[in-house]
Design the sequence.
């Protein structure tokens, strides 16, 4: 099992923190976001880590020479989905992919690894708790999920709050078979929508990972989910950064977290 961290973008909404550093270098509790991620992976025996970089990739290379790197040199022109597939050559075995601008407990990875499903998404069921004062990243921007009997039925920002089961944390696990199906759907859609609108007014090159996952749901693929109840924080804006620094500490869990 390997981990693939997607960290090519600059993170404009986290300025000035990202003025001269990659987004994953933002420090919370005296440690960088990427340090927390590495700890969560290694605590669960996942020691092979790949990093897809773009903006300030040199600083990540210097700090983590043990990583396997893939360089998304078009990070200013593409988006998360295209960025992930710069590491397609590393998807010939089971892997966990993760956004780089998130905090998550080791238990999130533990639960994913325990899943026997080919494709499993991590979902925060306590997601709405953080949105009360999150004016810079409101809930209509959340990657929300609906489920039924342990299976994801929809993953879309447009899901109404009241209908959402939780928020996709940006972490997903794929077995070898799951990875193969992910690749097949990616290339099918890339060929079908090359240069054209894919979903929600976006071209395929500018697509989000959740848009391909939703395409897979609609194509009949089974996407399972495992849940955390608050063991996750997204750090997308300066407001999020302040919240994380006030509410996340090493070895300390807030009430209701696992």
Sequence:
């Amino acid at each position: 099992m390997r981990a693939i961290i997607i960290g090519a973008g600059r993170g404009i909404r986290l300025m000035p923190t990202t003025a001269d550093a990659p987004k994953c270098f933002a420090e919370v509790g005296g440690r960088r976001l990427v340090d927390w991620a590495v700890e969560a992976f290694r605590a669960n025996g996942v020691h092979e880590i790949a990093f897809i970089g773009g903006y300030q990739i040199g600083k990540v290379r210097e700090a983590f020479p043990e990583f396997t790197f893939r360089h998304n040199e078009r990070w200013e022109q593409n988006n998360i989905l295209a960025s992930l597939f710069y590491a397609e050559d590393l998807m010939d075995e089971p892997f966990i992919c993760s956004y780089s601008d998130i905090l998550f407990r080791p238990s999130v990875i533990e639960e994913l690894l325990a899943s026997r499903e080919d494709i499993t998404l991590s979902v925060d069921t306590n997601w709405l708790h953080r949105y009360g004062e999150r004016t810079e990243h409101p809930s209509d921007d959340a990657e929300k999920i609906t489920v039924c009997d342990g299976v994801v039925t929809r993953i879309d920002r447009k899901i109404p709050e009241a209908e959402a089961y939780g928020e996709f944390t940006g972490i997903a696990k794929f077995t070898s078979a799951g990875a193969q199906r992910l690749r097949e759907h990616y290339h099918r859609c890339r060929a079908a929508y090359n240069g054209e609108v894919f979903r929600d007014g976006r071209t395929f090159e500018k697509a989000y990972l959740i848009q391909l996952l939703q395409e897979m749901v609609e194509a009949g693929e089974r996407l399972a989910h495992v849940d955390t109840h608050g063991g996750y924080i997204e750090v997308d804006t300066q407001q999020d950064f302040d919240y994380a620094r006030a509410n996340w500490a090493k070895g300390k869990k807030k009430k209701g977290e696992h």
